[in-house]
Amino acid sequence: MFGRFAPTPSADLHLGNLRTAVVAWLTARASGRGFLIRIEDLDQPRLPQADTIAARQLADLATLGIDHDQTVVRQRDRTDRYVAALAGLDGLIYECFCSRKDVAEATRAPHGATAHYPGTCRHLSPTERDRRRRIRPPAWRINADAAQMSVTDLLHGQYSATVDDFIVRRADGVFSYNFAVVVDDGLQEVDQVVRGEDLLESAPRQAWLAHQLGLPVPNYLHVPLVLATDGSRLAKRDRSASLDGLGTTGISASAVLSHIASSLGLTQPGEPVKLPELVERFDPTALPRQPWLVDPSSWVTSDR
Ligand code: GLU
């Protein structure tokens, strides 16, 4: 069984992504699991930069000492698997002709202020579907029937949500993140999902989908975010928080690893460390529950 790290190649990994990758690797290794890296490039198949960025992401992970056990897979090479998995959901999925604007307007309705898809296309007649198909290609949604789903997270405990009729395949044919991630984790024998806390709210719908596909539900650990000291999110595009950007200000990769390790309570501040040495000290349940507030510019002086 495996743990994994699954970056989207839209920009260089920032401190938050790197820290999550470190936690994912340590959680897998400390529990005797293998470790996989998967490039989630479904959304950018035609973006020439995606390959370049993916290569830089892999290089950064290797620099921190994050190794992996199998060839890195790319989601854009796995369409056949998604097509096959979707066929298994026949009867549960339906065509949706709503534009983003339609959904936004419908969900802004005075009653039930919910962002969930309101089910507009769930029960269209065959004639109506035919008519609409001639106007625009449909996306595919899954009928979750407002299922209640609960997952167990190593840091957050039980986390429950109502599953919405989420999109499994977009109108342009691209499979959705929520669909592909579940199929891939299932097929790749990933039973330990460690990722950023921003994805905790997606876990119930993904666990529910795993059930529908006959796949086992993984264990989850959602890692608290890394924030700037004013509480704002680190943007992926913020070069100053990438390994390369930090390097240009004189902060080495080993210093970054040391800061990450001390933020996780695994080392004393400034203690030099190699990733494998941390496996024995690592206890996922002892991880900090609060976001890590960082100002990397303060490291420049403290590290010299
Ligand atoms: N590809 C997603 C991201 O880069 C992570 C997906 C996951 O770990 O489930 O945010």
Kindly report how far apart the N and C termini lie: 42 Å
- Name of the CATH homologous superfamily of the largest domain: HUPs
Radius of gyration: 21 Å
SSE pattern:
EHEHEHEHHEEEEHEHEEHHHEH
The number of helical segments is 11
**What is the CATH topology classification name of the largest domain?**
Rossmann fold
Poorly predicted spans: none
Number of strands: 12
- Specify the biggest β-sheet: 5 strands, parallel
Mean pLDDT: 92
Lateral arrangement of strands in the main beta sheet: 3-2-1-9-10
* Overall 3D shape: elongated
Give the SSE layout.
Layout: E1 2-5, H1 15-30, E2 34-39, H2 48-64, E3 73-74, H3 79-87, E4 93-96, H4 100-107, H5 126-135, E5 139-142, E6 148-153, E7 157-162, E8 167-169, H6 177-187, E9 190-196, H7 203-212, E10 219-223, E11 226-228, H8 243-248, H9 253-263, H10 275-278, E12 292-294, H11 297-302
Parallel strand pairs: 1-2, 1-9, 2-3, 9-10, 11-12
Antiparallel strand pairs: 4-5, 5-8, 6-7
Helix pairs in contact: 1-9, 6-7
